[in-house]
Every structure is written in C-alpha cells, then in structure tokens.
Design goal:
279 residues; alpha/beta; Rossmann fold; Hypothetical Protein Tm841, Chain: A,domain 3; 11 helices; 13 strands; 43% helix
Length: 279
C-alpha cells in the first residue's frame, strides 16, 4: 500500500522538509481588507508580522472543501491511501473539511487525523507519518503510531496579549478580561481540543521557567524526546532559549519553528511555545 501524507499550513513545516518527505500541504488563509492570502504560499510569517503593524488584524479562513477534493483526486493517481493530519477540530473546521472531502472521493482511502493541537507540534505527526509511509508501513499502522504519539505529546504556550484569542473566539471573554486586568501571563495549552489556561503566571519569564519544569518532568526519565520551540516574531529570544535547553536536556532533540499568519492572528506577536513528544 502506498500512502500519501497531507497536512495543513498551520503545521508550519519548512518547505524543504515537506519536499524531503513528500508531505502535501493545504493552506489556510488570512484576510486583510477583503484580500485573501494563503499562508505559506501568498504570505510568509515575516511578511505577515510586518503587515499587522500597518493594518487591522485580519480574519482567518479554513480551506474550501473543493481544495481537499481536488488534492485527494490528484493523489489517487499515485497512492492507495491518504493520511490527512490537521489542526485541532476544536478551533477550526479544517479537519471536518478533510472528513467531508474524503467521503466525496472514490478510488482512494482517506484517513483524517485530528491532531487536537496546532503549529509544529501538529507537524510532528505529519513528519512521523511521512517517515513511516516511506518505509511502506500500512496506513492503519501509521494511524496507530500517531495515536501512540498523542499520549506523550505536550505543548504549552504563552501570549503577550489575550485580546487576540478573545476576539477570535478561541478564549472566553471572562478569561481574557481577568488576564488583562491582573497583568497575568497565562500559560495556555490544548485540552479537549480547545485552548484553555493551564496556569496563571505573573511574568513571561516565570511562564517559560514553568514550561521547562514540565519538560524536565518527562525528559529526566532519560528517554529520548523531540521538542520544538515556537515563536511569533521572537526569533532571537527563541534561539537563545533553544541553546539553554539543549545544554539542560542532552537527550532531547530541539527544533525551532514559528507561529505563522493564521495562528499568529489568534495568538498575537510575541507569543512563545514549547512542545515535545517521546520518540
């Protein structure tokens, strides 16, 4: 069985890695003043953070189902199955779009997978699936490995300004108000597919230190982990943090990634995250 791997742009897998592993990407979009830009295609993260300083915050949109259908129909010429890995169904309809498109296409078996998360932590699933697919592992066995990964995956992130999440409906009004009034820098995570506060911390530095404690609770077992530091236009600080963490955790492989236009719209510039899973 030959299996294709599809993910969406919010995984923010670098183009060279997507090409290396043959991962297909469906873009989500940001909309500035009725102008639609497909992230990772029409607009880069760097361009996005420049634009938002000069324009109103954009809205975001999921891919049209027709794009999924067209891609799946194209893939059926070469593949027997597709594993389609997407950002959490609790914050976007993208996963459901893949489900619906899979039901509309005959001639190829589509296995939609809800990562229940986003950004490069979602990308970990796609990379793992692509490596296994290249080895000829059956699609259903790949799905079992992804479910196993889900048990060890952790991700935490902190935002500078809760108003973006509140405005986009990804965090409740009450939580946003409390955070802004008390100058709290809440540590956030995904729970039951939605973004919720994990702990309330007074400063970004304390939040980052707390995430390191959480990583240590897993990584100090001595087992091998893969982790990613994710930033919203804070590359210098992210690189510095990566260097610190590499010296603390020699058994953890650290990558660097970013929050691109769609996720950056909801988190805001200055956000920082850390995610990991057991290899």
């Amino acid at each position: 069985m030959k299996t294709a791997v599809v993910t969406d742009s919010t995984a923010y897998i670098p183009k060279e890695l997507r090409e290396k592993w043959g991962i297909y990407m469906i873009p989500l979009s940001v909309i500035f003043d009725h102008e639609t830009y497909r992230e990772e295609i029409d607009i880069s993260a760097e361009e996005f953070y420049k634009e938002v300083k000069q324009r109103e915050l954009p809205s975001t949109s999921m891919p049209p189902i027709g794009e999924f259908v067209a891609l799946f129909e194209k893939l059926m010429k070469e593949y027997d199955a597709v594993i389609s890995i997407h950002l959490s169904s609790g914050i976007s309809g993208t996963f459901q779009g893949a489900v619906s498109a899979g039901d509309m296409v005959d001639g190829i078996k589509v296995y939609p997978f809800d990562s229940e998360i986003s950004a490069m932590v979602q990308g970990f699933y796609a990379l793992e699936a692509a490596e296994l697919a290249e080895q000829g592992v059956h699609a259903e066995e790949i799905l079992e490995r992804l479910k196993e990964m889900k048990r060890s995956i952790r991700a935490y992130f902190m935002v500078d300004d809760l108003s973006h999440l509140q405005r986009g409906g990804r965090l409740s009004n009450a939580q946003a108000l409390i955070g802004s009034l008390l100058q709290v820098k809440p540590l956030l995570h995904f729970q039951d597919k939605k973004i919720v506060p994990f702990e309330k911390v007074r400063t970004s530095k304390k939040a980052m230190n707390r995430v390191v404690e959480l990583l240590a609770a897993d990584a100090n077992s001595g087992e091998e982990y893969r982790a990613v530091i994710i930033h919203a236009n804070r590359e210098a600080e992210a690189l510095e943090w990566k260097s610190e963490l590499e010296s603390l955790f020699p058994n953890v492989e650290f990558l660097l990634s970013y929050f691109g236009p769609v996720i950056g719209t909801h988190l805001g510039e200055g956000s920082m995250g850390l995610g990991w899973y057991k290899k």
